[in-house]
Specification:
- The protein is α/β, with parallel strands linked by helices.
- The chain has 2 domains: 115 residues, Aspartate Aminotransferase, domain 1 (Alpha-Beta Complex); 236 residues, Aspartate Aminotransferase, domain 2 (3-Layer(aba) Sandwich).
- The protein is 41% helix and 14% strand.
- The strands form 3 sheets. A 7-stranded mixed sheet has the order 2-8-7-6-5-3-4, sandwiched between helices. The chain has a 4-stranded antiparallel sheet with strand order 9-10-13-12. A two-stranded parallel ribbon has the order 1-11.
């Protein structure tokens, strides 16, 4: 008589986590043949030179393990870029680490410094990896809402949320999902709030090159006392239209980088070699990222002009490649139900902002991604004109 095979019971570390809204909406968009303006990735190709640089790197034999923190030439190029743009000098050898995308960078920073019982402040709505990262580290999530409607930081609420157990705060600007960009004044208020504390800053700056209307990205690197306590995270995938490469980086003071690399070496060890060589070579020309604001501002304006002809109410899009709209004049449905209906019946996929809140706060706002070919955006606008 054969034994009955049984898989041992496994308790979940993340009981609140299921399939992400991005996976759900992308699958529905594919099923319905909808234009997918939900998940945030381009539908156009990167610069052919970047592909040629990868091919050249592979042909040159750069196919084995690179150094754990990243190849020296890429880290040096990153350090030079940060200095040129933000005026802060990082040591490429001891303060720059190449990562397997920004998401890996963020969880590695959290795991490096957050211990059981520590509190970490997140500003909602927020990118969906932050909370699970903190929970996996054994930390306690402290949710502070950005101001509804404007999505500006409320420093009184942030201050009230801080306790002796606060280990870190995660800040994201330009902000996903709201497309808000923090001002110099707001960064200085954050600086003043953190100055008398030991609180660390994880600054998610993956959309640093997508700031519009002549504004400047206020990187934490611009503020010496913030830089001294910050892990600054950025993404080559966002900057160079290669989200599938999953390559990013972290800039942090040497003492923080030491702890970061202790975790990094055991969760990914290092990042694929030919892409690193290609990126190092490609970064020799600053034009691709310096021209990015104008490139995406054109798409933002094209999309916004079309949406203005609908009953959607457009919210400001000061940065990122997202456009949020209020749906109150279009439908009585809640955000999630509206996005399902919009995808199935109108043929355009969007993401509900409620997915970025722990309690599912529904303020009748949805997010579109305009990182698409102009013709893709026009197709979406033609369909949305039916509303």
């Amino acid at each position: 008589m054969s034994a009955v095979l049984r898989t041992p019971e496994v308790g979940t570390k993340l009981p609140q986590v299921g399939t992400t809204i991005f996976t759900v909406m992308s699958a529905l968009a594919a099923e319905k043949g909808a234009v997918n303006l939900g998940q945030g990735f381009p539908d156009f190709n990167c610069d052919p030179k970047l592909i040629a640089d990868v091919t050249a790197a592979m042909a040159a034999g750069h196919n084995q393990y690179p150094p754990m923190p990243g190849i020296a030439t890429l880290r040096e190029a990153i350090a030079a870029k940060v200095t040129a743009l933000y005026g802060h000098s990082y040591n490429a050898a001891s303060e720059i680490t190449v990562t397997a995308g920004a998401t890996q960078a963020i969880i590695t920073a959290v795991l490096a410094v957050v211990r059981p019982g520590d509190e970490v402040i997140v500003l909602e709505p927020c990118y969906d990896s932050y909370v699970p990262n903190i929970e996996l580290a054994g930390g306690t999530v402290v949710r502070v809402p950005l101001t509804p409607g404007t999505f500006r930081p409320d420093f009184e609420k942030i201050s009230a949320a801080m306790t002796p157990r606060t280990r870190a705060i995660i800040v994201n600007s330009p902000h996903n999902p709201s497309a808000t960009v923090w001002t110099e004044s707001e960064m200085r208020q954050l600086d003043a709030l953190l100055a008398p504390t030991e609180v660390l800053l994880i600054s998610d700056e993956v959309y640093e090159h997508m700031v519009y209307d002549g504004a400047l990205h206020q990187s934490a690197a611009r503020f010496p006392s913030l830089a001294a306590r910050a892990f600054i995270v950025s993404s080559f995938g966002k900057t160079y239209h290669v989200t599938g490469w999953k390559v990013g980086y972290v800039a942090a003071p040497a003492v923080l980088t030491t702890e970061f690399r202790k975790v990094h070496q055991f969760n990914v060890f290092t990042v694929n070699t030919p892409m690193q060589h290609a990126l190092a070579n490609f970064m020799g020309d600053a034009a691709p990222y310096l021209e990015l604001p104008a490139f995406y501002q054109h798409k933002r304006d094209l999309f916004a002009a079309g949406l203005a002809k609908t009953r959607f109410k457009l919210l400001p899009s000061a940065g990122t490649y997202f456009q949020c709209v209020e749906i109150g004049e279009v439908s009585d449905l809640g955000e999630a139900e509206f996005c399902q209906w919009l995808t199935s019946e109108i043929g355009v996929a969007a993401i509900p902002l409620s997915a970025f809140y722990g309690d599912g706060f529904d303020q009748r706002v949805v997010r579109f991604c305009f990182a698409k070919k102009d013709e893709t955006l026009q197709t979406a606008l033609d369909r949305l004109a039916r509303l």
